[in-house]
Amino acid sequence: MSVRVAVEPDCWRRPVLAEAVARGGGTVCTPDEASALVWAEPTQAHLIGELVDANPGIEWVQLPYAGIEPVVDIVTARPAVEWYCGKGVYAEPVAEHALMLALAGMRGMATYARASDWAGPEGRNLLGASVTVLGGGGITESLLRLLEPFGCDVTVVRNRPTTMSGAARVVGPDELSQVLPCTDVLFLALALTPDTAGIIGSAELAALPDHAWIVNVARGGHIVTEDLVEALQAGQIGGAALDVTDPEPLPDGHPLWSLPNCLITPHIGNTPEMGLVLLAERVTANVALRVAGAPLVGPVYLDLGY
């Protein structure tokens, strides 16, 4: 099967993604000649619908996003087009970042990095810790592999409670309240949907042990920020290590910036430079699959929210 692919818009990512199309056996062309579109600029999601509408020959679109929040309305309005996102593409660097945040938080880096004198000892081991992971996708799969040498007792909370390699147990969301009281580290690695927005609020924070750390590499909207601030200020939990926040970017002067038990990185679990190589691999794979007439990887499921 011949696959003609437009790579748009013109930006610094375009040459790499165009090469990825060619490696998959596709032909790079202009949008009016294309049967497929690879979207190259994540910051210009608002232009995708306009380009697709202007070029009715486009049958499927490869999006650069792992989550579909930026394009839900665009995808919903165009059901005749096949949409594929970057779910799983960025899992390994994000999982690596999550592990780093957990270690930094538990070992007191938020305090030591701000210290201006020789501080006293603090910290807990990740070794042998009780870990709970919310979400059962690619980030969780990668994180479980990274956690193996630490000998953690891992519980995964996901919609489909089927076994996962590296997890001692997998439970459904209705059992979250039962696992939180014995959790040393809580990782958030799930998609943001109406069902998961605010999944961690005052009740969940109160259920955690007072030494527990929360690591969020998913979306800031999973945590009720006001409740988190109160819990951190009161010493209700050990701390929070956040690569994502709500709101995002976190405003100057927000209480989270100054809390000694809060560690923040500016949504860099996957940087543009890291992500481009990984997205290119997905583009090559999906173009090759379409050439072969096989199902593509990463279809968007609007009913599930990812």
Structural description of this entry:
The protein has 306 residues and is α/β, with parallel strands linked by helices. 31% of the residues lie in helices and 15% in strands. It has a 7-stranded parallel beta sheet with strand order 8-7-6-9-10-11-12. A 5-stranded parallel beta sheet has the order 2-1-3-4-5, covered by helices on one side. Helix 1 (14-23) packs parallel to helix 11 and helix 4 (91-106) crosses helix 6 (138-147). The longest helix has 20 residues, at 272-291. The chain starts with a strand and ends in a 15-residue tail after the last helix.
Rg, alpha carbons: 21 Å
Order of the strands making up the biggest sheet? 8-7-6-9-10-11-12
DSSP, total strands = 12
Low-confidence stretches: none
Helix content: 25-40%
Q: Output the CATH homologous superfamily of the largest domain.
A: NAD(P)-binding Rossmann-like Domain
Second rung of CATH, namely the architecture of the largest domain: 3-Layer(aba) Sandwich
**Net shape:** elongated
The largest sheet is: 7 strands, parallel
The proportion of strand residues reads 5-15%
For the residues shown, what is the average pLDDT? 97
Treating each run of at least 4 consecutive H or I residues as one helix, how many helices? 11
- Counting helices, strands and paired strands, the structural category is alpha/beta
C-alpha end-to-end distance: 28 Å
Helix and strand element order:
EHEEHEHEHHEHEEHEHEHEHEH
